[in-house]
Amino acid sequence: MRKITILLLSCMLPQSILYAKKKSKRPNIIFIMSDDHTSQAIGAYNSRLAPLNPTPTIDRIGNEGVIFENAFCTNSICTPSRACIMTGQYSQTNGVLDLSQPLAPEKLYLATEMKTLGYQTAIVGKWHLHKRPETFDYYNVFYGQGKYYDPILVEKGMTSMVPRKAAGAHKEKGKEVPGKRYKGHSSDVVTDITLDWLKNKRDKSKPFFLMHHFKAPHDMFVFNRKYENYLEDTYIPEPASMYYDGNHGSIATRGLNDQMKDSIGSSVGKRNSIRNMGKHMKIDPNLSDMEYKHAAYQEYLKRYLRCVKGVDDNVKRLFDYLEQNNLMDNTIIIYTGDQGFWLGEHDYIDKRWMYEESMRMPFLVRYPKTIRAGSRSDAIINNTDFAPTIIELAGGKKPKQMQGESFAEIITKGKEPKNWKQETYYRYWAHMMHHQNPGHFGIRTKEYKLIFFYGLHFKDAAMKSKRVWQTTPGWELYDLKKDPQEMNNCYNDPRYSKVVKDLKSRLHQLRVDLNETDENYPKIDKIIEENWN
User: Fold this and answer.
1) What is the pLDDT of residues 402-420, one digit of tens each?
2) How far apart are CA 271 and CA 499, in angstroms?
3) Considering only CA atoms, which of 75, 81, 80 is closest in space to residue 442?
């Protein structure tokens, strides 16, 4: 009789209540993203820096979950990468090609879908997509880049005001904007705000989707002062390619007879006289080239890794809260960076290039209920795939407007499906802006990378700047199995003629399929046509 009564009562319950109970069993999801945290600076990726043990807490995510070894961005620069993550779309489709273009609020598809699935949504920290993320149930974000110390953030519904200039809110109107100044280092501040939301502001009857975004370790690497002695007396391993570059590059990136090496791509040492890390680190310019580069690199890496240390320690603070409140094992934890970053390889700093250290993103996931600890995958994924994957892990389906694909099956089953993609597309649009990197696009498979440098800005107005000039078109091909450090451009090697032909065919088809052609940019389109073969 008791069983019959319970059954009858359950049948009489409104469907909304039953659905709410079903949704409440779904896992929480925390998406942690650091700015410019490259895979070389994460111990779990076993790079030359791994013996320094830079990220013990972040490594735990991979050691107790899965590490993706072939995760890539589609444009190695902050704003476009974040737009790809939020929309599941490539840059031409979402409309964000460079740092200046905002993401339309109605295109925050990831947040919209998660809310539809019954999740409470929140984002804290770096946003950098210009227009405020009103789609989220809660936000507390920096204006623009934000400041490392005593940053100003704007919270949803906030009425307190701060000077527009102090907030870095250059595109906002008026002399003042809503915001609040927080005391301390930004990595600590972002975590303080997140923990306050988790403890006091979230709806505990719902699963939550939280995006926790650090500013660190973005340049210029202002670390928390408590880490000033961290690694002080430690030698930081140096990449061989910082001193010897082999046959890396082409006429497009080095110029005829290397005439452009001093002005293309920011450097660690004196190579780029306009922008090099030695200047930023205030290294004695009277040192020899090699001594200058060594000193600049050691100081650069120590500052960078001190910022990383602050990130890792704050991730531990999040983990401590989750464990103390029995949330750790019912929460999918994702860790990534918004792109890769140069740590001296090929004598480069910053990002932007399609080369490995810049294009590769860290991506680690922990969820012990479905992920086998210590898993690793070499499946090719990119940042347009993140949103579809998160949505599927939350119990939903990818919306039609998303171009990326869910790799949730790879996360949970540990195997790459037979029909999974075998290449990824890349495009850098901001030709010769900021760090003097030529415009280029290309295709990357597990075995090869083909890049075409077309050397022109997509905005005619940008080409009128004294700092921006047209560069020589050129192709580069790297055999990643034989040459993972990309030391030998083998595009002109006749032994690779069939490889080049195949990759060009696949690249052309990718550009058509992904709406990434240059039909709207006739000057670039002409260069492509003239130099395709």
Assistant:
1) 999 999 999 999 999 999 9
2) 33
3) 75
